[in-house]
Amino acid sequence: MSAAWNLPENRYFDPDPAVQRVALEIFAEIEQLPIVSPHGHVDPRLFSDPQSSFGSPAELLIIPDHYVFRMLYSQGMSLESLGVPRQDGGPVESDHRKIWQRFAEHFHLFRGTPSGMWLAYEFKFILEVDEILDGENAQRVYDQIAERLASPEFKPRAAFERLNIEVLATTDAASDSLAAHAAMRESGWRGRVIPTFRPDAVVNLDTEGWARQLESLRKASGVDVHDYGSFLAALENRRAFFKDMGATATDHAVVVPRLAELPEAEAQAIFNKALTQGSVSAAEAARFTGHMLVQMARMSCEDGLVMQLHPGSFRNHNPSVFDIFGRDKGFDIPVQTEYTHNLRPLLEQYGDDPRLRLILFTLDETAYSRELATLAGAYPALRLGPPWWFHDSWNGMRRYFDQVMETAGIYNTAGFNDDTRAFLSIPARHDVWRRAAANWLAGLVARSVVGMGEAREMAQEMAYRLPKRAYRLDGDA
Amino acid sequence: MSAAWNLPENRYFDPDPAVQRVALEIFAEIEQLPIVSPHGHVDPRLFSDPQSSFGSPAELLIIPDHYVFRMLYSQGMSLESLGVPRQDGGPVESDHRKIWQRFAEHFHLFRGTPSGMWLAYEFKFILEVDEILDGENAQRVYDQIAERLASPEFKPRAAFERLNIEVLATTDAASDSLAAHAAMRESGWRGRVIPTFRPDAVVNLDTEGWARQLESLRKASGVDVHDYGSFLAALENRRAFFKDMGATATDHAVVVPRLAELPEAEAQAIFNKALTQGSVSAAEAARFTGHMLVQMARMSCEDGLVMQLHPGSFRNHNPSVFDIFGRDKGFDIPVQTEYTHNLRPLLEQYGDDPRLRLILFTLDETAYSRELATLAGAYPALRLGPPWWFHDSWNGMRRYFDQVMETAGIYNTAGFNDDTRAFLSIPARHDVWRRAAANWLAGLVARSVVGMGEAREMAQEMAYRLPKRAYRLDGDA
Amino acid sequence: MSAAWNLPENRYFDPDPAVQRVALEIFAEIEQLPIVSPHGHVDPRLFSDPQSSFGSPAELLIIPDHYVFRMLYSQGMSLESLGVPRQDGGPVESDHRKIWQRFAEHFHLFRGTPSGMWLAYEFKFILEVDEILDGENAQRVYDQIAERLASPEFKPRAAFERLNIEVLATTDAASDSLAAHAAMRESGWRGRVIPTFRPDAVVNLDTEGWARQLESLRKASGVDVHDYGSFLAALENRRAFFKDMGATATDHAVVVPRLAELPEAEAQAIFNKALTQGSVSAAEAARFTGHMLVQMARMSCEDGLVMQLHPGSFRNHNPSVFDIFGRDKGFDIPVQTEYTHNLRPLLEQYGDDPRLRLILFTLDETAYSRELATLAGAYPALRLGPPWWFHDSWNGMRRYFDQVMETAGIYNTAGFNDDTRAFLSIPARHDVWRRAAANWLAGLVARSVVGMGEAREMAQEMAYRLPKRAYRLDGDA
Question: Using CA of residue C59, residue C63, residue C68, residue C72, what is the dihedral sign?
């Protein structure tokens, strides 16, 4: 017989009774708050077509989720055997029950991992599966889930409403038509799903297929991009369009966050070289990206869109996986990231500007206490985003609270992002965050660092109000 | 109605009863020990003039304290509105009640921060204010504090004695006349306030106004500094004077702690260039500073002054704040700091010398377990200073105990420094340290890592004896 | 009267009753498992000669143990006074009772350190000394231990069996004859002591005495090494010999783990330069080492030997100690270590190869959550070794569990290595690891992260099965 999930109401909290009692009390006050999801990668088409569905259990939980399949891959399973599509359309496992069986037989790999926590939540509380998945019950559980997914309450729009999501931001290329968002609006559906402006593919001149991306930008903006000046104009045009479509934020990835403006002539020259020669050197591309991120800050001052910076990920580290399967396949590996020197040119220009809101993320936890908390605790333009990606975990949150809050204070942080493409993991991830916040605050109360009244207010901030304010989701700054 | 401070005797300790009981027992034995404050930035003139005072409540707690006003600034308040003086003498808020009101209305920003802990202690135990400051009670509390500050027991000398400070070291420029220290001596007051020799302004050739600083050194030493050799002689002269005035230590700041001697000719050439041309390159200045710090180690071997090294702070990160308000305004941001390679040249020369005592600090906590504990656990000349600045906090101390002590052992550490310019925060900071030490030791006892007798001895060391020995405050090494 | 050791069965566990109860239950199931020691530095001659002995108490616990004497040295004792032999044969303390007395009088330096924990275990449970060592009881304890060491059950072979060691790997130069291992085999003794192939001395061209080392390799292999090709052949020859003698693994040290293949012609040229000119530049040596480590990975794919990488130690940091006493004298200091960029060339070639098993170690804990867990959680060839050296400690293990396991999962880790040259510390170190693992798992159970059944299985893995599989000690992959 398979084991039952053990997910009691006091799960994850410190076992110490003095802490746990307070944690439960605080958590009870925030558990049911609406979910604010200001940054993530859910596909908006799930909601634009009222008839869309989550697909098979394998399509819901394995095939698109690099958190899940990279762990299986690390233990010797091929991505083909897990149904991950090849870019060349070559054969991969198409029997979703076989994929599911493989997953189930290796479900122990997720013990103690955040994916294990999220999946437990999804199985138990959303999909109403009572047993821990294993090789024996795999097909039975598959049937159960498939049945649920076929029911009307598991249509994505119904799920969105049932899961109490107040607002969900997607992440969209600068050239995206936002047709899915428009379709949602036009359908009269009242779920708030807003776009986020992510221009990486045109701003990073060494993006694979940059010329094609630029062509898409030309079409989307209607601006004839033929030089640096018209490039800026096209971006401004698209920002205005995104804002009109409900966006409140932009998002930017960069390996080394060296945000420094170039002399205008140099920026023009590099851009022209990319236009005319089709490529620039890696150093030129890096300098241009850093320059463009300062332009983005300037535009944020002008249009009020909140700027997000996600630095320090070495993308597609495994070239053979990248060649066969493409990007986002579990091989984005963090690198050491420096902020104090690198952000200074941008902060010199805009760090004191009350119009700018720049939300910083990191994959390098060593920056928490050393650089990020000290910068965010001083510059008015800055807020710190929550623990990101590999650090979006119980211990990652604990380390974040521990290393950030004393210096930055909670009011210079931005609450939680789920940052997920796995829609059903949204409530699971917010559940972990709210529990972690409640537990942290309970520890402060139990040690008389703050009083219970203060902790209650702080819990409301961390679970709900901070992200709304940080991302200007109420229209306020 | 405003809330009352909740500062029970068991505050901050682990809530686990087995730990807390032992922590209370250990803390009771060290709570009343005299305060040894071997490094800080209190103005000695507070004590040289028997009639000096702490000023208004805003002058006591807000205007001079960059820990406090940088947090308010980070949330959008201008420094002018907080009464921080402009260098050009331009207008800033002069109504201290308005400044106080602003502070009070944003007092929630300090929740969970070390400043919040220190202020709570100062309000409750020193200023005898029972309510948590807020917008409603702000003016009432202002009156209360103003009344206290007007009373004789709040004259600085009286406060020094009442707060049980055994010794307080100030930090003083190489060219300082130490007139305030002399006045104290001459007045017959028995408080022990000693100077510390900090020659950064002349040793770092790129100090703003270096020529002026050098001129001051000439005057103070009576040495006609006209070349590198006479520069060394002037410094030796001043060290002897400081030592005569009670100093037991020197202190040195540097961004990158590359402590390596130059060929004598190169040192001479760089110094001459600075003298004759008025400036040197950044690289030359850095090399010269590294060279001079080795000279300081050599002089320490000769005169027995303990050498302190505070590396890794990017000073005045915000240029507009620096231009308007000057240094020490909350914008000193830590940078990654390397010790293993950088300290090696100095350690090669003096690391085994029994005459040298070099106390190392860091703003980069990653160096604790990797470099600092391993170096201090091997070289006899080294001791590790306590968690510094942003890390002078409950969690910062916990991380320090956790990451340093297993490898270095407590006997290669130097106890606590409050390192503050806010005089009333001295007992508050030592209270946090003593609680943190007691709590850490209680955890060791509860887990049978050390016995109760051992923990008691270790507590005496950490609260009192280690800093006295490390700083040679008893005259012993 | 001296104090008695306090080493209760619940030692080191969290004092929280809910955690401690579970920890005790889990620990009881793994405490008696056989010891698997797949990496360490015990001298195999202890076991090849049935009449060998551990020597005097000072020879057992002080003179050869750099963990111990570097702490005493850091507090001002000379290595000569501790009996550490000089390379020139010059005089050092030869009265082992005096050395012992010195150690005993400073035994408090080890409070709260891992050495303190291990020594406590060895004194109490192996040597059956009931008192904590101090200056008063030093000679009495010396007598007791000397008596034990003279008894038959303290012959190394008898101790090996009594301590329940299933397998012990030594670390041996590429040119080692493995005569001691052969003698063990031939003697019919059934203890499993296997060699590990460590070719650093010939692979690192800047090794002191490299030409001599190469000559030893020629002799040992019977290969006339006259160029790069014959060098590779000699190494392959030795690997085959080691494998035949029971080795399942190789081991490699490098400061900067830049593992990148050179063009064949460049590798040949650098090697020829070393052969003909006797030396190469530091940069050439570093490039060649990085190249050779890729060759080692290629050979591992071919012969199945598990590859271990121990990077990031700045060896012999103190030149005067090195000159007088030689290597391994407590002055190997960690440096910052980068893995994401540096390992990529190797991983590009072999990271997906099911034949390769590469076990990574670090002295830079910042790499745990940022680089090592993310790499090991993705590449099938990788496993993470346990906390190494300074991090082989209670808190080091806690940080490792905390920072590695959520992202890598326990199944991408390799259990424990004691990595010691102090034979009696082997059971002490495994005791700490097993307690730390039990305590960590108990924390997961108490917080409902995993169930008790899962925790039990994980404990068996962490204490016994993971290292056997990772090091292919059962012949399986």
Answer: positive
Query: B403 CB contacts (<8 Å, ≥6 apart)?
Result: B365, B368, B369, B373, C395
Look at residue B477 and tell me whether its pLDDT is greater than 90.
Answer: no
What is the pLDDT, as a whole number, of residue A477?
40
Distances (CA, A) of C104 to C57, C107, C110: 12, 5, 11
- Cβ distance B409 to C109 less than 8 Å, yes or no, reads yes
Q: Look up the CATH number of domain B53-151.
A: 1.10.2020.10
What pLDDT, in 10s, does the model give residues A6-24? Answer: 999 999 999 999 999 999 9
- The whole-number pLDDT of residue B474 equals 87
Token pair recorded at residue B14: 């682990």
- The whole-number pLDDT of residue A474 equals 87
Beta partners for B37?
A: B168
Give the pLDDT of residue A313: 98
| pLDDT for res C475 | 66
Return the ∠ at Cα A412 (arms to A411 and A416), rounded to 5°: 85
Three-state secondary structure readout of A140-175? HHHHHHHHHHHCHHHCHHHHHHHCCEEEEECCEECC
Secondary element (H or E) of residue C437: helix C425-446
Specify the CATH class of A17-52+153-470 in words: alpha beta
**pLDDT (average), residues A408-424:** 97
Single-letter residue type at B81: S
Nearest to A450 among B111, B335, B336 (CB): B111
pLDDT tens figures, C294-310: 999 999 999 999 999 99
The residue ranges of every structural domain in chain C are: 17-51+153-470, 53-152
Tell me, yes or no, if A335 comes closer than 8 A to chain B by beta carbon. no
Say if residues A55 and A149 touch (Cβ distance below 8 Å). Answer: yes
Give the number of other CB atoms < 10 A from CB of residue C8: 10
The verdict on A368 touching B (C-beta cutoff 8 Å) is: no
Residues of chain C numbered 394-413 and touching chain A (CB < 8 Å) = 402-403, 405-412
Read off the pLDDT band of A475 (50, 70, 90).
low
- CATH ID of C53-152, from 1.20.950.20, 1.10.2020.10, 2.40.50.100, 3.40.228.10: 1.10.2020.10
The answer to whether C15 contacts chain A (CB < 8 Å) is no
Residue C330 backbone class (left: φ over 0; alpha: ψ -120 to 50; beta: rest): left
Percent of chain A with pLDDT over 90: 98
Distance CA C151, CA C153 (A): 6
Instruction: Provide ipTM, 2 decimals.
Output: 0.97
